[in-house]
Specification:
The structure holds 2 protein chains of 2 kinds.
Chain A lengths: L1 H27 L3 H29 L5 H33 L10 H6 L1
Helix pairs in contact in A: 1-2, 2-3
Chain B lengths: L1 H23 L8 H9 L12 H9 L1 H21 L4 H8 L9 H23 L8 H19 L1 H6 L4 H24 L14 E2 L2 E2 L4 H23 L3 H8 L4
Antiparallel strand pairs in B: 1-2
Helix pairs in contact in B: 3-4, 4-10, 6-7, 7-10, 9-10
The chains are: A mainly alpha, B mainly alpha.
């Protein structure tokens, strides 16, 4: 019982830390693509991971309807896990296609792959 | 240093307001008599709507006329946008010409397929459980309309039209929904009830599940009407700009 509680609490704390890092990264990173990385840290680490933490936490307590809470947060976490990378990919693709962002990459693997 | 001062000021004000509010905001201890009436009557009382969800029974039963006119306003808005984008027969045929293609990278399209299936299921559950849990026809229909929007973004609108969901069909589904709402509202008149009456004309239960009398029908038809109405507008909005320039005779 208490193992689930501790694990869940650790996951939620990790989520908070990831959110903080994501926010700092959004402020400090140099261009759109790297900032997108920070934003994804914020969504996956800061939203999906704590939801899995809530799942464990709910299973570890004796509140009524705990399975419903656990199931709902598990499914929400999985949906975020699916949607966040897809959204980030779509944003990066659109930005690259429209060529609106100045960037000076050290290596451009996409260009090399297209040759 | 300047930014630090700003930060400190904002933090002080926020914490101060939060402290003030937490000290001075007492939770309401008594209910309004009207609220008591709804809570007592929505499932058990003498004026029951046979629905455990008080909000839906207020929206479609106790204040059903209000919702009926809200629905009318919404659909007039949809008709307005359909009129703005009115095309002749040839023009709307030409707007359909195009090849469905992936417009986004493959992983996005794969996720879109999964999410669209999920959205269909979730929106149906929001609408059809409207008499049991929070939600209802309008909310479910708005959720439903996200599915075609995602398909339009990932696969272009031609994918929807090639699979049979074009503007005309969307408008037909929307009209079926509106007709259903109107017929459900008029049915009580056949058995000498009054307009939009719910109990005891409509069955309150089926197979052990509370239906809330007419609430489930209103929710179902509103779901269809809102989802299809939004879809029709999205299909019109996603016609490429070049085609519209050609229709209107605007030079490039």
């Amino acid at each position: 019982m208490s193992i689930l509680l501790t694990l869940g609490a650790i996951l939620i704390l990790t989520g908070g830390i990831c959110d903080l890092f994501g926010a700092i990264g959004l402020l400090k990173f140099p261009n759109f693509y790297v900032r997108l990385h920070a934003a994804t840290v914020g969504t996956i680490g800061g939203a999906a991971v704590p939801l899995f933490g809530v799942t464990l936490l709910a299973l570890g307590t004796d509140i009524p309807n705990k399975e419903a809470i656990a199931g709902a947060s598990l499914i929400t976490g999985m949906i975020i896990l699916l949607v966040a990378p897809a959204g980030a990919t779509a944003l990066a693709y659109a930005a690259h296609k429209a060529r609106i962002i100045e960037w000076k990459p050290k290596t451009d693997q996409l260009k090399e792959a297209r040759k | 240093m300047k930014r630090l001062i700003g930060l400190i000021i904002i933090l002080t004000i926020t914490l101060g307001v939060a402290y003030y509010v937490s000290q001075n905001l007492t939770p309401q201890k008594s209910l309004h008599p009207l609220g008591k009436f709804y809570l007592k009557n929505s499932y058990f009382g003498d004026y029951s709507a046979k629905s455990p969800e008080a909000v839906t029974s207020i929206v479609w039963d106790y204040r059903g006329l209000d919702t009926l006119f809200e629905t009318a306003v919404f659909f007039i808005a949809i008709i307005g946008s359909l009129t703005l984008f009115r095309l002749s027969k040839e023009q709307s045929e030409e707007a359909k010409q195009g090849e469905p293609k992936r417009e986004l990278p493959e992983p996005v399209c794969a996720v879109t397929k999964i999410i669209v299936a999920m959205i269909l299921a979730v929106s149906a559950s929001i609408a059809l459980h409207g008499q049991l849990t929070p939600g209802g026809g309008f909310q479910g229909g708005s959720a439903l309309a996200v599915a075609p929007l995602l398909i339009i973004a990932a696969y272009s609108k031609y994918a929807l039209e090639k699979n049979g969901l074009d503007k005309t069909r969307a408008i037909i589904i929307r009209s079926i929904g509106l007709l259903g709402i109107a017929l459900t509202a008029l049915t009580p008149l056949l058995v000498k009830g009054y307009f939009m009456q719910n109990q005891p004309i409509f069955p309150g239960k089926a197979l052990g599940a509370p239906l809330g009398g007419s609430l489930v029908y209103y929710n179902l038809f509103e779901y269809l009407a809102v989802g299809a109405g939004f879809t029709a507008v999205f299909l019109l909005l996603s016609i490429p700009e070049e085609k519209f320039r050609k229709f209107l005779g605007v030079k490039q």
